[in-house]
Design goal:
Layout lengths: L3 H6 L8 H18 L3 E6 L5 H7 L10 E6 L5 E4 L5 H7 L4 E4 L9 H14 L6 E4 L6 H9 L5 E4 L3 H6 L4 H24 L6 H14 L13 E4 L24 E10 L2 E10 L5 H20 L6 H14 L12 E3 L6 E4 L13 E4 L2 E4 L3 E4 L2 E6 L2 E4 L8 E2 L1
Helix pairs in contact: 5-6, 8-9, 10-11
Length: 403
């Protein structure tokens, strides 16, 4: 096989082995067997590109690119793209033999032509008049209307477990790639911390992390909601480790306690992690804030087990924060999420999550406390859920980093 970086430079991502795609499609078809559906229709776009890449190998070339996978329970799949000019490139990326262009609603396509082309695809896939399942992901109303209005169109039903079922049941190949991605994230964290000191800009520290991850093999994608990036929370007063700007030219100042959040993407896999940094020796209040965050992290790890809900893990962390008087200062998004094959799929770690953790899945544990008068502390680590406990995947220390 040619050098992976040369392949990427030629526009073709490094593919998994053929047998890996066979396993993925086999698992999806097993889910269809269980549901009684005759096939599945998977939509891909900038906000949700991961299912298409995972199942077909096709990578969107920019955020507005669209694709549709028609997968019969029995028979050959069809991959539909929104741009004819990109079809030859798509054929080089995917294992699927039947790749077609589709007149797309957002491009002003005639609805009759769109319905006709979809009807042809459903007929060729043997799904005419049958039933198809779609995952519980974003699906454009115009496309769904055309799909349902096509001649001989199958009945469409939402199968919410379709995509999370794959995310929370990674194959050995998946697990090995996720561990490689964690090593890239670790390199980025260490480079960021090494760059931090008074007078250094947020941007300079973040770019040091990006350079380290790029050298280690990180991907930087056009057509993806989540690419390799670094987000720094110095000067932040928000209750979240997300904010509008990834970094600014503001210079780090002595006395700051803040978080760094980075995501490494590698061969279509993701690892998301945070660490807490203090510029100069922390005050007693700052160290105490971090120690509560660390205690939350330990309590949440202890609560993790197969069959446990995301809400149970959330409560374990919340109880620690409440005892310390920080119950109303937690990360306002959630305290963790599934990761690896995608980012932030269910189950997530929040108060109302009923989905259960599965043995072998990858989970991000993400306790964060945001106190505008003291600073922000966050620890985020990727762990693998196991019958006898958890296995941390990141190698970078979760200790408070004093620079």
């Amino acid at each position: 096989m040619r050098d992976p970086q040369r392949r990427k430079a030629e526009g073709v991502p490094t593919p998994p082995p053929d047998e890996e795609f066979e396993r993925r499609i086999g698992r999806l078809r097993t889910a269809l067997d269980d549901s009684g559906a005759d096939g599945a229709v998977i939509y891909g776009a900038g906000p949700d590109p991961d299912p298409i890449r995972y199942l077909t190998g096709y990578v969107h070339v920019f955020a507005r690119a669209r694709s549709l996978l028609i997968l019969p329970r029995r028979g050959d799949p069809i991959l539909l793209l929104d741009r004819e000019w990109h079809r030859p490139e798509a054929e080089r990326m995917t294992w699927i033999d039947d790749v077609r262009a589709l007149p797309w609603p957002e491009a002003g396509a005639d609805q009759a032509a769109l319905r006709a082309r979809l009807g042809e695809a459903f007929a060729d896939a043997g799904l005419e008049g049958g039933t198809v399942a779609v995952p519980d992901l974003e699906f454009p109303a115009a496309l769904l209307g055309a799909l349902e209005g096509a001649e001989g169109a199958p009945t469409v039903s939402v199968l919410g477990s379709l995509w999370p079922g794959l995310v929370t049941d990674p194959t050995p190949y998946d697990a090995a790639r996720i561990e490689e991605t964690a090593a890239i994230a670790d390199a980025g964290l260490e480079a960021f911390v090494s760059a931090c000191r008074p007078g250094v800009s947020e941007r300079a520290a973040c770019f040091a992390a990006l350079e380290a991850m790029a050298e280690a093999g990180a991907e930087f994608l056009h057509g993806s909601a989540v690419s390799t990036h670094v987000d720094v929370g110095s000067f932040s007063r928000g209750r979240s480790n997300l904010q509008p700007y990834l970094h600014t030219e503001s210079e780090l100042e002595a006395g700051e306690l803040f978080w760094v959040d980075l995501i490494a993407c590698h061969d279509g896999y993701y690892v998301d992690c945070d660490r807490t940094v203090c510029v100069g020796e922390p005050s007693a209040e700052q160290r105490a804030l971090y120690e509560v965050c660390r205690e939350m992290y330990d309590a949440m790890l202890e609560a993790i087990a197969p069959g446990v809900t995301g809400a149970t893990v959330w409560r374990a962390g919340r109880e620690v924060a409440e005892r310390a008087g920080h119950g109303d200062r937690l990360n306002a998004i959630y305290l963790g999420h599934s990761t690896g094959i995608t980012i932030s799929s269910s189950p997530v770690v929040r108060a109302d999550e009923t989905a259960e953790l599965r043995a072998g899945q990858f989970l991000n544990v993400e306790p964060g406390i945001f106190h505008p008068e003291i600073g922000a502390a966050c620890i985020e680590n990727t762990v693998r859920v196991a019958e006898g406990g958890v296995e941390p995947i990141n190698g970078a220390s979760i200790d408070l980093r004093v620079v």
